[in-house]
Predict the structure.
Amino acid sequence: MIIDAVVLFFVLGVVARLAKSDLRLPEPLYETLSIYLLLAIGLKGGVELARQPVAGVLPSAVAAVALGAAIPLALYPVLRRIGKFPVADSASIAAHYGSVSVVTFAVATSLLLQAGIASEPHMPLLVALMEAPGIVVGIVLARALARTEGDRPPLRWGPLAHEVFLGKSVVLLLGGLAIGALAGAQAMAPIEPVFFGLFKGVLALFLLEMGLVAGGRLADLRRAGAFLVAFGVAAPLVLGFVGALVGHLLGLSLGGTTLLATLAASSSYIAAPTAMRVAVPEANPALSIGVVLGVTFPFNITLGIPLYLHYARWIGS
Amino acid sequence: MQTHAKKLLVIITEAALEKNLIRDARQFGAHGYTIGEVRGGGERGEREASWEADRSIEMKIVCDAAVAQALAQHVLSSYAANYQVAMFTADVGVFRAEKF
């Protein structure tokens, strides 16, 4: 198994948090690092797109959106019937899994780079496309299936759509892709040292912070119960396989298939919690954030991604 | 210098509500507001502002007593059941009554 150094930074964060260390990254730095990562991922994809205009992006794009929308529909019954969670919580947790985690994607690209495995340049576009559909489906599920519909104000879809489709991650990913594609490799050369050369170091710092955050969520899990913890591992295992299968059917490369599997298996902890908090306020955020950050995110970046690479290899052979 | 009696309404809650609260404050007749990011804890746990979904805000509004009353009532009935909300008022004196 390939161990990526950045993952160890995450582990350090978790350990520091559990040991009640006073280590804390200032919030503006967290914000800066996340903006950097999103832009860098977009720019890299954009430069590659400019270099080799890709035919057949459309099937991948449609499949990615469909996959993101289908995941909450598949997970909802499991959470509702087997997990016995209320409608709002089932829909909210399912929506988190339908959306994606950009940092998980970044760790996967970093691992592929280390292993010398190439992937399609339009993969960052798929990240941007997969962010919103799962959230929208989750909100519709919660709204359509809740019994108390009568006594609450109608949902303002306008501001919510604005938040989901023009959130910072979508703007930065698509913006980076556009800048990279328009500027091309030559024009990007002067800023390359910052955006490409420093990428892994910044990712390491960001994961240190994520470790601190994830470590702080572990307490929520005790309240959430064994089912949710098992779900947090089982869901990415199954969804990763489905993602790899879809990637294979789309004819993606080994790297592209691994990345699509990673996207399918990953769960959002930025866009989804914010949107669900506004749209489905009765859902308990401690449950969804606890399982997403306390179980699935750590699982994906340590064991999950190498496993999805195996999935992709196995399906491709 | 003469001061005029007004109410200071302070709402401490989750950052997800910021846009709603600004809209509500305007709707209920507040002339202005100040928002700052804060950290804290309560009966539902700690909020450390360590990442997006963990942010909290403190909104301060200086207004007439009737506006503060109506807005506070609205916040309690609309948000308090599902969000972490801490709210209080205080009597304050302002120098330019027409501004608030």
Notes: The first strand of chain B starts at residue 4 and ends at 14.
